[in-house]
Amino acid sequence: MSPTPPALKIAFDPIYAHPLPEGHRFPMLKYELIPEQLLYEGTISSNNLFAPAPCADEIVLWTHSPEYVQKLHQQTLSAREQRHIGFPQSPQLTRREFVIAQGTIDCCYHAFAHGVSLNVAGGTHHAFANRGEGFCLLNDFAVAANYLLKKELAQKILIVDLDVHQGNGTASLFEHEPRVFTFSMHGAHNYPFHKEKSDLDIALNDGTEDGLYLSLLQNTLHTLLDQLEPDFVFYLSGVDILSTDKFGKLKISMEGCRQRDELVFSQLKLHGIPCVVAMGGGYSPNIKTIVEAHCNTFRVAKDIYSL
C-alpha cells in the first residue's frame, strides 16, 4: 500500500480513549485501536495525525447554554443527568469532549484545503444545548457548524447523519437555523425513542438490508446536493448500522457499510464540497468488527480523494 501524504489530516488525541470505571470501557476502546490499525497497515503515517487542544468556552457557548457548560466544568451534573449521558462525570471526560469539539473544528480547515478530514472520535449527535444524552456531552458537529457560520466560512451546511440512531440533539439545535440542513437516516424503532424533527428524516424498518439502504441513500443524497447546493458537509459515519451490532436492528453487511462511505465521498468529491467526518457509534460484540468498519471509512476517504 502506497504511503499517504500528510494532506490527509486526522484528529486524534490519546484522551479520546481515556479510561473509565469498569463497565464503561468498551465504547472507548475503538478510539485507541482505530489509529493503531491504520498505522500498522500503512494506510496512514504519524504525519497524518494531529492532536487538538480543548475548545474554548467562548466557541462552545455559541451552541451550548452557559448553565450546562458551567455544570460540566464544575462537575455538578445531577445523578439523573449522568444517567441520561451514560457515563459518570469526571474532569477527564469533560476535557475529552472539549478536545473532540476542537478536533472537528480543526478538521474543517483541513477539509477546505484538501477536500476531506476525519476525526477519530466525534459525532456526538445526542447532545442538546442544555443537556447530554446517549454517551454525548457536547455536540461537536453543531459546535463546528456554528463556528463556520460565525466566522463566515460557510453559508449553507448539510449534516449527513448515517448513524443508526437519530441525531436528535443536532435536529433540536438547528430547528430554527435555515443555514444548516439536518438529514438523518436511522432505525425507526431505535434510540432515541422520542425523535426530534430533522429537516429530513428517513426512518428505516428493522432488518433493512444493503440494497434498499444504499438505493435510498444514493437517491436522497443526490437530490439534497442538487437542491441545497451546500458549501460544506459534516458526515457522521456510524457503523452501528451493521447486522452484527447489538443495538442497531438493521442488516447491513460490512461491504454495504463500506459502499455507503464510498457513495457519500464520491458524491461530495464530484460536487467539490469539503467534508468533515466523525465516527459516531458502533456496538458489535467483537471489537475487531467495529474497528474494521471504522477503518474502512478512512481507507475509502484515502482512495476517493487520492490524497
Automatic annotation (TrEMBL):
One of its GO terms (molecular function) is histone deacetylase activity. Belongs to the histone deacetylase family. SUPFAM superfamilies: Arginase/deacetylase (SSF52768). GO terms for biological process: epigenetic regulation of gene expression. Keywords: Hydrolase. It comes from Niastella caeni. It comes from the Bacteria. This is Histone deacetylase. Residues 28-296 form the Histone deacetylase domain.
